[in-house]
Design goal:
This protein is α/β, with parallel strands linked by helices. It is built from 10 helices and 14 strands. Helix 3 runs parallel beside helix 4. It is elongated and about 70 Å long. The structure holds NADP nicotinamide-adenine-dinucleotide phosphate.
Length: 346
């Protein structure tokens, strides 16, 4: 099952909105074949694993391991449970049940009804952690929310007053590469309006290869300039706005005065099958998520530089899961609640 999870994670940059799934066919302690789910609409992990194994008969006593319950419904591909029955797999070992309403135990039932031995809940907590984006989306009806900020050694997100145009960088180049990797793992990145005004970030993936997430901006008062990089068309942008800005060539969602912008935004992203969002600041926007208890994971990078004055980094009362030193920076991973199986998995 650990091997399944390692394979499943290979889909972290491409499989969403589908779940991360790996499958391994084992006989007499030997791996016969393995597969993972790469992209929505492509073969599921079990199908890929059996394709790699080939058309020959599957040996009596072989076991198929998979971290998520095989599907039982016709989606974009036929049901995996049917394939396992057809290929006469005798024993299937499953990490966790799939809460997706079209599956939700029916895959396991289908296998058992066909006389297949099914073992469930193997490395269940680790499986849930790897699957946290998909599970949050299905179970809570909102994207998985990752907060991220970079702070100076004395706890500031930026320096005030800005004496020069050239702003001192907080994080090291090693961390910048990591942040771009993080961007490719989520389907959307969000920033606040004052961050657009002060920093003019492009929010693109440049230091690594990978999928560009949807850029999301919350700016109800329209304080950001039309010329801001987030509106430059190099990647898709969704603007949450108070009044339509006809000059901007980006999709816009109007936020009525009496509606909470964060709830509206999360509902809109969920409607678009976006399973996760990386909130990259600034401080005020991050603190609105924290105050509402609407976050799952926070990644904090602390650099060596000291600012003395500036925008204070948000306060967090959370579970520290992991800490490491990267170049000159310290990296910390927090979760909002204790989560069994939570690790720093890359
Ligand atoms: N070091 C870092 O990691 C990092 C990262 C990003 C930014 N920064 C720094 O942070 C500074 C900007 O941060 P900031 O705190 O001044 O501004 P900000 O968070 O970028 O902008 C304020 C945000 O809060 C939103 N907001 C206001 N009221 C809200 C409510 N009731 N519910 C939900 N959202 C609400 C605003 O939306 P509306 O505009 O629609 O009201 C706006 O998007 C910049 O100078 C930048 O350099 C640092």
């Amino acid at each position: 099952m650990q091997r399944c999870l390692r394979l499943a994670r290979l889909g972290a940059y491409s499989a969403a909105p589908n779940p991360l799934v790996g499958a391994v066919l084992v006989h007499d302690g030997q791996v016969l074949a393995e597969g993972w789910h790469k992209v929505a609409g492509g073969p599921h992990a079990e199908v890929e694993c059996l394709r790699v194994f080939g058309d020959g008969p599957i040996p009596e006593g072989a076991m198929l391991y998979v971290n998520l319950e095989p599907c039982s419904h016709h989606g974009r591909t036929p049901p995996c449970a049917d394939l396992l029955i057809e290929r006469k797999v005798k024993h299937v070992v499953i990490g966790q049940e799939d809460p997706f309403p079209a599956v939700a135990g029916r895959g396991i039932q289908k296998l058992r009804d066909a006389g297949i031995t099914v073992t469930t809940d193997v490395l269940h907590d680790e499986c849930r952690w790897v699957q946290r984006r998909f599970l949050t989306s299905v179970e809570k009806g909102r994207p998985y929310i990752v907060l991220k900020w970079v702070r100076s050694a004395d706890g500031f997100l930026d320096q005030h007053p800005r004496k020069e145009r050239v702003v001192k960088r907080i994080s090291s180049p090693e961390s910048d590469v990591l942040v771009h990797r993080w961007r490719t793992e989520e389907q959307a990145i969000l920033v606040g309006s004052r961050t657009v005004v002060n920093d003019d970030p492009s929010l693109t993936v440049r230091h690594v290869e990978g999928r560009q997430p949807l850029r999301v901006v919350l700016d109800r008062d329209g304080i950001s300039a039309d010329e801001s990089k987030v509106f430059d068309g190099t990647a898709s942008t969704l603007l949450f706005n108070g009044t339509l800005r006809a000059a901007l060539p980006v999709e816009q969602v109007l936020v009525p005065d009496d509606v909470d912008p964060i709830h509206l935004m999360l509902a809109e992203l969920h409607k678009r099958d976006i399973r996760s969002i990386l909130v990259e600041g600034g401080a005020e926007l991050l603190s609105h998520f924290i105050a509402r208890g609407l976050w799952d994971e926070a990644r904090v990078i602390t650099g060596e530089v000291k600012f003395t004055t500036g925008t204070r980094a948000p306060d967090l009362n959370a579970h520290l899961v992991h800490t490491e030193v990267r170049g000159t920076d310290r990296l910390e991973l927090f979760t909002a609640h204790h989560i069994a199986g939570a690790t720093w998995d890359r």
